[in-house]
Amino acid sequence: MKIAFFDSGIGGLSVLAEALRRFSGAEFLYFADEDHVPYGTKSRAEIVRLSLDAVGFLVSRGADAVVVACNTATSAAISELRGAFGVPVIGMEPAVKLAADSFGARPTLLIATPLTIAGEKLARLVGRLECETWSLPLPRLVEFAQDLEFDSPAVRTYLREELDKFELERLGSLVLGCTHFNYFKDVLREILPPYVRIIDGIDGTLNRLASELGGGLRLARGEDLPSRTTKFNAEDGVKFDTNLSVQAGKFGAEGRGAGGEQGAGGGNESCVGKNNAEGYGADGGKIYYPNGNSVEYFYSGRALDAAQLRKVEVFLKRLDAMREIN
Ligand code: DGL
Fold it and tell me: 290 is in which domain, residue-wise?
């Protein structure tokens, strides 16, 4: 079974990286629309067209299901994608409901692209919540990520200036409504008061993928659902209970030369798993990972060359360092 992930660029790698930890024996495809990134400042019609092209390409490469690992493309094009293709298409929405359910005694701040924030889908979602929800478009953060500028002084200044527009001390949580923002969790953590939780929508998306495909995906050894951020302790809206035992250290635990099982303990132990590639495939942009998983990478329909694949490893390493920051 081939599962495809699609994003405008490198943001969706955060969802893929989690899938590589969680599942085993899977063939993944990853499509970054590098020729057209960013999506968040384009028109809805343009994103519909680009998304149809991207998913069409992935289906032609044998995808049995497609995860739209992009909040912007989901907001603009999910119904068109579902109508156009005969495979399951799983979208990604800002986790404002999870934030409201867990920390709703205080306001939620959603950061996302301008298109996601202006979208009808978000208005409907937020309209159903009791929780006070503020939103902030951060288009430059997508550009910083694409330029591999993750924690520079310019990034810090931009984020401080933008976030200072809000009464941060009143917040319960910050929702990352754009997958590119997962690269900046450390800088965001520095700026926010310590009790404000940072919530991404990754686990919810993968839970949906797993349930949509029934038994089609095998869990990696020791994995179980639900995992990571699905468990919040809502008591007074500020405590956070990460049930990490099911996530700990599965990358690098199996396969040649990948090292021993790591961090298999339970409780609130931090995850030490690493997202190490096992080797480059002979056929262009394919990488083999522990747990018997592989990924074929494409930039707007072109298979990645060796130098580009090495860069992907840099992104995955950065994401690995960010994943337990909440
Ligand atoms: N990563 C995308 C998202 O989740 C959008 C970034 C872009 O503007 O291209 O919304």
Answer: 2-92+205-228+285-322
Best substitution site from 5, 7, 300 to test ligand 1's pocket, by max atoms within 8 Å of Cβ?
7
What is the reported pTM?
A: 0.84
CB-based burial of residue 63 (10 Å sphere; 0-12 exposed, 13-18 middle, 19+ buried)? buried
Stronger pLDDT, 214 or 249, i.e. the higher one? 214
Where does residue 169 rank: exposed (0-12), middle (13-18), buried (19+ CB within 10 A)? exposed
Residue 284 is predicted with a pLDDT of: 61
Longest dimension (CA), the chain: 53
Q: Which atom of ligand 1 is nearest to the CA of 75?
A: 10
CA of 250 to the centre of ligand 1 (A): 28
Residue 188 has pLDDT above 70, yes or no: yes
Nearest ligand 1 atom to the CA of 38 is 9
Domain count, the chain: 2
Task: Tell me if 38 CB under 6 Å of ligand 1.
Answer: yes
Å from CA of 118 to ligand 1 middle: 14
Ligand 1 mean position, distance from CA 263 (Å): 32
CATH code of 306's domain: 3.40.50.1860
- C-alpha 119/C-alpha 107 separation (Å) is 20
Shared-domain flag, residues 71 and 113: no
Q: Considering 145, 178, 209, 316, which one is annotated as catalytic? A: 178
Are both 83 and 120 inside the same structural domain? Answer: no
Whether residue 209 is found in the same domain as residue 193: no
Average pLDDT, stretch 21-33? Answer: 96
Residues 11, 115 within the same domain:
no
- pLDDT value of residue 217: 86
Q: Based on the domain organization, do 14 and 80 belong to the same domain?
A: yes
Residue 320 marked in a binding site: no
The predicted structure's pLDDT at residue 254: 30
**Segment 77-98, tens digit of pLDDT:** 999 999 999 999 999 999 999 9
Residue 179, annotated ligand binder?
yes
Do 175 and 113 touch, CB atoms closer than 8 A? no
Model confidence over 200-216: pLDDT tens digits?
Answer: 999 999 999 999 998 78
- Whether 110 is in a domain gets the answer yes
Output phi, psi for 132, to 5 deg: -65, 125
